[in-house]
Amino acid sequence: MKVALFLPCYVDQFYPKVGIATLQLLEKLGCTVTYPLNQTCCGQPMANSGFENLAHDCNELFVENFGDHYDAIVCPSGSCALHIKHHLHSDKREGDALQIRSHMYELTEFLTDVLKVNHLSARFPHKVGLHQSCHGQRGLHLSQMSELVAAPYSKPEKLLNMVDDLELISLDRKDECCGFGGTFCVFEEAVSARMGIDRVEDHIRNGAEVLTGGDMSCLMHLEGIVRRNKLPVKVMHIAEILNQE
């Protein structure tokens, strides 16, 4: 399968190991992966702040980079994947933009729904708490929302349960927001920080050694809280765990 790897700008700049782990994991699972070198920000920060009209050039550049009709475009970030799925348009190449939107996948969604992975040769002997980010859960439907009277499911949990010696802990509030919310953490700093503290404390209270998730933006927020308060938990993207040997 011919796959294009879309790495959000903050992953590229601050968490390159997440991009490397994603690439290695996809190749282990038999994908032929291409990384378009001229990719930059997808425009999500502007759109989420009410300035989508200023993201025009970001849209056109994204189509230029990913418009070669790949079998799939995979992103280790639910929020950026959701933005492209729902909001990508092009004045010059709208047909290619629609093609991209229909072939865009968040990483865990791609592994479970497209590759239909049922076995991973990974081992991670730690107690792990899963943070299910809002964009992934409520936008991409990667997991069921607890307020609904419906059968529970979680695509990230399904994958983590395939990792040898990994113990997935239960949280008191498994689908609560971490408070990051992109620019929300800037405009509502105190509320955002308090929500993040509550989220981290839930993991620590239930014995997590490692806090993971599928969106590095949320994990960046939580890791900042962990570091400033010198808390006894490590933060890792799910790709880094699934890629363990």
Automatic annotation (TrEMBL):
It comes from the Bacteria. This is (Fe-S)-binding protein. PANTHER family: LACTATE UTILIZATION PROTEIN A, UNCHARACTERIZED PROTEIN YKGE. It comes from Larkinella punicea. Residues 3-85, 128-222 form the Cysteine-rich domain. One of its GO terms (cellular component) is cytosol. InterPro entries: Cys_rich_dom. Pfam families: CCG. GO terms for molecular function: oxidoreductase activity.
